[in-house]
Design brief:
- The chain is mainly α.
- It is built from four helices and no strands.
- α3 packs across α4.
- The radius of gyration is 11 Å and the shape is globular.
């Protein structure tokens, strides 16, 4: 994984966590996991942001915010 990609993922995590202080520990772990790589993030985006599948960890306003922030992230 290249440095710019890692920086983009890290910035996305920081933005999301900064704006979502009320996450449960398992939700925080989940976000850390899906932002580990561009591939994981893209898979999440396809299933939950585009196809609107139900996500057991992130839902409601948190999911909407995360999807919006993923869309704003440049790779």
């Amino acid at each position: 994984m290249d440095i710019p990609e890692q920086q983009s993922l890290s910035a996305l995590r920081e933005r999301f966590f900064y704006n979502n202080m009320s996450l449960q520990p398992h939700q925080t772990d989940y976000v850390l996991d899906i932002t580990e790589s561009r591939e994981k993030l893209e898979s999440f985006r396809q299933f939950y942001c585009i196809k609107k599948d139900k996500n057991p960890f992130i839902y409601g306003q948190n999911l909407i915010r995360l999807c919006d922030q993923i869309e704003d992230t440049k790779f």
